[in-house]
């Protein structure tokens, strides 16, 4: 069994001497994860083109640009972000074992693993999305259920995607609420980080990622 204080204490110890390296890995994961991606088009067309009847054409152009932008973002997220995500998890897994090597971030840009990793993470995303369409709560439950898929693929990149999803489901059985509470314990840190125009959150992220790697090690040993 694990405790939040134990995970956090271990993570702090592993980050000593490697914080800035871990910060770089976490920063790349945040950027390629695209969690804060927005397209601000609000007021740019509100008073343009109405005099010559071109307002609808302008709106259509904006809509097309938005659609293309979303498609490009999704392609980058799937074909680049997924691989970097698994590489980043591999980095933090190894850091939790006392080994710090930033090259793990790029380890899975390898034709032997590329397709397999993309398939596993794509199915994870599809399942979470479909459950979220029903209600928010089922989507959140599935998000925690499949939380360790990137970690599993980081250690076994040739694993079948169904097996990876099932393993994550088994590992989180009976632990999802505890993991949720662990996440809640970081709210104070992220709130403080958000006070500095959100930039401070980036400095908390390596700590959060290191704690999650410690969590994976404990849950895997239990399973």
Automatic annotation (TrEMBL):
<keyword id="KW-0472">Membrane</keyword>
<keyword id="KW-1133">Transmembrane helix</keyword>
<feature type="transmembrane region" description="Helical">
    <location>
        <begin position="18"/>
        <end position="38"/>
    </location>
</feature>
<feature type="transmembrane region" description="Helical">
    <location>
        <begin position="186"/>
        <end position="208"/>
    </location>
</feature>
<protein>
    <submittedName>
        <fullName>Uncharacterized protein DUF975</fullName>
    </submittedName>
</protein>
<keyword id="KW-0812">Transmembrane</keyword>
<dbReference type="InterPro" id="IPR010380">
    <property type="entry name" value="DUF975"/>
</dbReference>
<dbReference type="Pfam" id="PF06161">
    <property type="entry name" value="DUF975"/>
</dbReference>
<feature type="transmembrane region" description="Helical">
    <location>
        <begin position="121"/>
        <end position="141"/>
    </location>
</feature>
<feature type="transmembrane region" description="Helical">
    <location>
        <begin position="58"/>
        <end position="80"/>
    </location>
</feature>
